[in-house]
Amino acid sequence: MGSQWINLTDYTVTQQVLFFADAIFWAVTYLLVIYYARKYKFFGIPVEAAVANIAWELMFSFFFTTELGDLFVWGIRLWLFTDVVMIYFHFKYGAKQVRVPLIKQFFHLASIIGFVFWCWIIYGFATEYGDPIGAGTGYILNIIMSTLFIFLFLAHPEQKALNFPIAFWKGFGTVFVGIGIYLGDTPSPFVIAVASITFMLDLFYMGLTLNREKVIAFIKKNKQDEQISETVLQG
Fold first, then answer.
1. Phi-psi region of 45 (alpha: psi -120 to 50; beta: other; left: phi over 0)
2. Are 45 and 145 in contact, with CB atoms under 8 Å apart?
3. 155 in a domain, yes or no?
4. pLDDT tens digits, one per residue of 94-121
5. What is the pTM (predicted TM-score) of this model?
6. Domain interval for residue 165
7. Which residue, 75, 92, 192, 203, has most beta carbons within 10 Å?
């Protein structure tokens, strides 16, 4: 394995630059989520995906280590410091995303159970199939997160904590790893497929955030049409 800090034996300089760019973009994403959560009193990541994401970072900080080099191992561990703040805002404002009364009532417990379950799933997947840099499990979580971002925005289009800056940094940060793996000697068809679909979902989410007023107007019009239809049927 090349350098202790950066593995240039199994990965090229270009790949390492892409992986490093991914880490920077995700770090900015986390800082933006924290900033907008404080500003708008709304947690800007789908809560279902947030617990999975934190579980991934915990598992790849201490139970598994990426083979990219110690720089990335410690980089993931440093993310845990931002996770502490993220967890705080998750528990403080995350329940606002939930519309099912029973789940909302037990939101904290559901979050903890979800975190434990995702740790178990990630451990099982990485142990059975292998996940040398965490890309396999990472992209499974990312495609779920990108899908949930769209549904969350459509449910709360007025929430400004769901915005283009977060969508941009998250979307392009995620795609860098897919490109890096594609450029490798043995590219993973699974990771490339999931990375491509995830990026398409992220682009769609970016488009939604850039057209917030049109989305709100469309949703309002649909609700009005539904009310008119119900009135006609009842009459």
1. beta
2. yes
3. yes
4. 999 999 999 999 999 999 999 999 999 9
5. 0.90
6. 27-213
7. 75
